[in-house]
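Quick one: co-fold with cytidine-5'-diphosphate.
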Amino acid sequence: MIIAIDGPAACGKGTLGKRVAAHYGLAHLDTGTLYRAVARETLARGADPADAGAAASVARILDPASLADPGLRAQRLGETASVVARHPEVREALLAYQRSFARRKPGAVLDGRDIGTVICPDADVKLFVTATPEERARRRFRELTQTGSPVTEAEVFDDIRRRDERDANRAAAPLVRAEDAVLLDTTNLDIDAAFRAAIELIDAALAHAGQAV
Ligand code: CDP
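Sure, here it is.
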């Protein structure tokens, strides 16, 4: 079973993905960490993230063991991640890992921007999670200040708007709702309510497809 969760920056898909995976006993991959890890290593090499060749050479030898590092959540890496994520060569280099992760038994939840459209177009269930930019900035600001990051809410808001714009308008695998994805707007839902809503939508989609949960 494959569950695809896509949505814009800080919409809550990472937290939802983790909880949904635990609920159904599935593996979970936050695909944003792949792009964040490529961003960090590209910067560490002193290379330019806008240089497709430099970023792709990092992506081709990315070690999945590095993805668990909480340091990848740093705000500046989100920004650089959206720069390296524009390069088709980088996306191509990360494709096989994501597809093979999706085939894990008994199934997997993947969250990102292009899971339902490019990585797993045949996913059993697709959710597209949204919330207003203001609400997403509020949540991400809270999360970042809890980890001691020195940011202001205005900076977080600007970062989110800039990344949304870049992610939605790039040529390669842009952020877009798959035609068959179910929309979940979490603007007025806290994480528990969003989780319950997600489970209801997923159970309904699985029942509709005739699959046992
Ligand atoms: O957690 P947040 O929503 O802030 O971002 P993320 O999911 O960690 O993703 C960071 C950046 O990686 C995004 O802004 C995208 O540019 C890129 N990304 C992507 O292009 N495709 C994905 N499947 C996941 C992330």
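If it helps, The chain is about 55% helix and 10% strand.
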